[in-house]
Structure formats: C-alpha cells, structure tokens
Design a protein that fits this description.
- It is built from 7 helices and 8 strands, in the order αβββαβαβαβαβαβα.
- Helix 5 runs parallel beside helix 6.
- It is globular, with a radius of gyration of 20 Å.
- Helices cover about 35% and strands about 20% of the residues.
- The chain has an 8-stranded mixed β-sheet with strand order 1-2-4-3-5-6-7-8, sandwiched between helices.
- It is α/β, with parallel strands linked by helices.
C-alpha cells in the first residue's frame, strides 16, 4: 500500500512539474538574420509560447516595435512582459529598428522600414511555426514604433489585419505621408487600428489628426485617450490592451 501511494505521488509530482512553463520558455531570445532592405544583418527578439517546443501547433504572431531611443530589448525588459505574453498563446517578435530606418519619402522612394518588415515577416514565417495569414498577424508599437506600425499596416494590409500605436509619433513632417497612405489603402483591405495616447502627451494633437483621417474614410478603429504622458505609465497598460484586442480579432488563433 505504501509503495502504491509513493508511486501515485510521484506521478502527480511529474504531472505538476511538466505543467509549469520552463524558465527558458518565458525568456525572449535574440536572433540575427540577413535583411536585403537594410543591406546587412538585422536583429530581433522573439518570445514563443510555453508549449512551443513540446507541441506541433502553429501560432499567430504579434510584432512589437520599440520607440526611437530604444531597441529590441525594450519590451522584454518590462516586468510584466514574459508572464503576460505567455498567457496569450502567441509568438511575439520585437525587431531592433534604428530610427534612421524610418527616413526617406516623400519623393517616391519607400521607407527602408517597409522593406525590412517584409523581410522580417518572411524570415519568421520560414523559421517558426506561425499561422502565416494576415488574420493571424498583428503589428503595434510605441512612439516612433507606433508610426512604423501604422505605416506597415497601411502599405502592407496583405500582411497585417490589426495595427496598434501607443503615443504614435505622427508629427514632425510625417503628416503628409500618413495622409497619403490612408488615402491610398482600399477600405475593404484596411486593417483594424487600435490607437491610444496620453492626455498629457505632446504628440496627442497629431494622434487626433490621424484618427480624423481614419474617420473620414470609415476605416475601422478604436481610439483611447488615457491619463499620462510619453512614458511607460501609458505604454505598459496600452500594450496589454492591444494584445487583448488582437487576441479577440477573427482568425487570431493557434492551430492544432
């Protein structure tokens, strides 16, 4: 009887232990790859779901873009990041995008960033078990990254069904570029936008102007103004709100 109890206890302990995500599964890894658009190596951080290695499932992907003075470690460094992302059963990719990448245009030439995002999506889809459809792919970012996410969503609606921008840097000469991009996208193809900004943020007026552009064309969106400035006090909760918004979108699910 004692040996049977010990055996049962051992089985229960093994089952309990295997149900706990490993420390490695909760850690974002850094990856380097060749990007034709950037003319050399590029870097991104990636966090996969806790059961990624033990399953054959395919997962939806969220791309998160850092701000102008940050890099690919900005989101993983947040205390909530690994735990909260791991609960949402999605792959999250965070590229290092130098601010100079957002240069060029107007003048006919595309932003280097636009080509880089295409390179990045192709690489991730080729090397990870993703659900490679626009419905299962989202992109968001803060400040300069919010501007980049919006540009990517408007110029490549075939890649992203959902776009997020938190304190989007839509001013300083970028207004005409955004207006042209909104005017050019077909409404039937346009992604859904989640936009948020602090009421004490200097970029708020430009954010409101961008929302008006979406409203004029009846492009689906959700817009929030929240207390705060151009800080993580706004970006932390709004990134989480964006992840929840994405998770509720049609087609944003893992496959068996």
């Amino acid at each position: 009887m004692i040996s049977s109890k010990r055996a049962l206890t051992a089985v229960l302990l093994i089952a309990w232990a295997t149900s706990i995500p490993s420390a490695q599964s909760l850690t974002a890894r850094t990856v380097r790859f060749d990007s034709d658009a950037l003319g050399g190596q590029a870097t991104f951080a990636i966090l996969v779901p806790p059961d990624y290695e033990a399953s054959a499932r395919r997962y939806p992907v969220v791309y998160l873009l850092h701000g102008g003075t940050q890099n690919h470690t900005a989101f993983p460094a947040r205390s909530w990041f690994a735990k909260e992302v791991s609960r949402r059963n999605t792959i999250v990719v965070m590229p290092h995008t130098p601010q100079t990448t957002y240069g060029m245009r107007p003048g006919g030439s595309s932003l280097p960033f636009e080509g880089f995002i295409v390179d990045l999506v192709r690489y991730v889809d080729a090397h990870y078990r993703t659900v490679a459809s626009r419905q299962a792919r989202a992109i968001g970012g803060l400040s300069m990254g919010g501007f980049g996410a919006v540009v990517a969503g408007l110029t490549h609606p075939d890649l992203f069904a959902t776009v997020g921008a938190f304190s989007g840097a839509f001013s300083s000469g970028r207004e005409s570029l955004l207006a042209a991009a909104v005017a050019a996208v077909a409404i039937a193809d346009a992604p859904f936008f989640y936009l948020a900004c602090g009421t004490g943020d200097a970029v708020l007026p430009a954010g409101r102007d961008f929302v008006k552009l979406l409203q004029q064309r009846d492009i689906p969106h959700e817009y929030r103004e929240v207390p705060g400035g151009h800080t993580w006090d706004v970006w932390d909760p709004q990134t989480l709100a964006f992840l929840d918004t994405v998770k509720a979108r049609p087609g944003f699910v893992a496959t068996p």
